[in-house]
Amino acid sequence: MKTRVIAKPDLKLAAKRGRTPTTFHRVNNSSNTEIINKLKNRKYFIKTYGCQANVRDEETMRGILESVGMISTDNVNESDLIIINTCAVRENAEDKVYGEVGNLKHLKAKKKDLVIAICGCMVEQPEILDRLINTFKEVNLYFGTHEIYNLASLVYETLTSGERIVSIESKAGEVVEDLPSCRNNKFKAFVNIMYGCDKFCTYCIVPYTRGKERSRRFEDVMKEVKELEAQGYQEVTFLGQNVNAYGKDLDEGYDFADLLVAAGHTNIPRIRFTTSHPWDFNGRMIEAIAKYPNIMKFIHLPVQSGSSEVLKRMNRRYTREDYLNLVKKMKDNIPGLTLSTDIIVGFPNETDEEFNDTLTLVDEVGYDAAFTFIYSPRRGTPAAKMEDPITYETKVKRFKELVSHLENSISKKSNEMIGKVYPVLVEGVSKTNKDMFSGYTENNKLVHFKADETLVGQIVNVKITESHTYSMLGELVK
Ligand code: 5AD
Ligand code: SF4
User: Fold this and answer.
1) Could you say which of 141, 260, 322, 336 has the lowest number of CB atoms within 10 Å?
2) What are phi and psi of 262, to 5 degrees?
């Protein structure tokens, strides 16, 4: 198969983008009759790995494919287009993709015009892309997060040319509006408010793969929010790698606090946002969260480490004290606040004392939930070049210690909820017990309880009867 390279990623270019202004494009490629005639009634299958940004990208890809008449299928064997939407944030996310793509090889032998596509953060890295191209001869389309808007035409090109197409640009500063989307959920929605990241934490690949920090315009975000409100959505989550930096790149006189206030004035019962960076979290944002009852008093505030020294090596731009002061300010101003976090264990050269600082910080903050990771070197990032004498065994030992520490404190907080009544948004039949339904409290605790189908998508009152580390049992209160 001949390979046509439209663009290949370049990490150095991605890192050197500087202060490129944000530009806006309005795109609708659903009216091209040639593309529609070729793609109509073909079946597509998408498998997504990674974060909510990828989940939201999948919804956009679905919207684009359906707008040209393609049909979704859950059965990979009957698909005409298979898209693997990848994640590169840690090595284990990558390994899964190599396995998954390997399993698809045999399908191509059966169906000659099958298109197998790989997109997402993995292909934005030159060396990984080359490895994929050399390993998987069956894959005939590679596209990046910046090319999603062009998906229908890329699939068309692949089919009509018979070539393998690679279209991945390390672009800076673009926001594409007006793309169709096909939401996965009828009552909970993600709304992108910004893309990319300019923080360049030394361990993280995201600023290279997702590009420059760029915000959507306030009116575009709110138009989407208003549409969701009119459709009866119960929960809207604002998405961005660093939502608190919203608006900074636009210089149009608004920031994330203004967006929170506007969302606070809607009738959407639950407004959430993720992810926050302590550096950009200001007092006006805290005030807005405190003031509006429909903004959930639940903040995901990644700390990454409790040691100021490690934070410095991570380029996190705050110290342990800065973080604890911010948490205090939040707790003082937002009654009933709960916090969750991300923590990396085993960053290069992390000493026992530095790790211990993380344990004491965890105790001091009292998180309600936490995502913990063992540091995974990402090629092209500064941390990957740091010397690291700490053995993997030590990292695993520390990881286990941290998890058991966190589980103790989370269990304590969950136990305090027993006997009390909380509003719960009913999601559907429980994934672990088909006789039960499940949903989330305002502070994001998963609760299982007896209910019926008519309550799905509604907010009901549930009395907590039992608590486990990662979920709770409850009874519906009439
Ligand atoms: N190794 C381990 N964890 C990482 N994260 C990001 N990059 C790495 C890495 N190289 C974690 C951070 C981030 C979360 C989404 O993933 O904790 O907040
Ligand atoms: Fe990665 Fe840091 Fe940006 Fe988060 S803030 S996406 S951890 S570089």
Assistant:
1) 336
2) -60, -40
What residues flank ligand 1, with Cβ below 6 Å? Answer: 89-90, 203-204, 302, 304, 342, 344, 373, 375-376, 378
Tell me the three state secondary structure of residue 23.
strand
- Report d(CA 330, CA 313) in Å as an integer: 26
d(CA 342, ligand 1 centre) in Å: 8
Sign of CA dihedral 348, 410, 342, 310: negative
- Give yes or no for residue 180 having a pLDDT over 80: yes
SS3 165: strand
pTM for the whole structure = 0.95
Phi, then psi, of 85 in degrees rounded to 5? -100, 110
Look up residue 297 and give its DSSP letter.
S
- Cα–ligand 2 centroid distance for 276 (angstroms): 10
Residue 77 has pLDDT above 90, yes or no: yes
CA 378 to ligand 1 centroid distance, Å: 10
Output the 3-class SS for 412-444. HHHHCCCCCEEEEEEEEECCCCCCCEEEEECCC
Q: Looking at the DSSP assignment, which residues form a beta bridge with residue 44?
A: 72, 81
Whose CA is closest to atom 16 on ligand 1?
Answer: 89
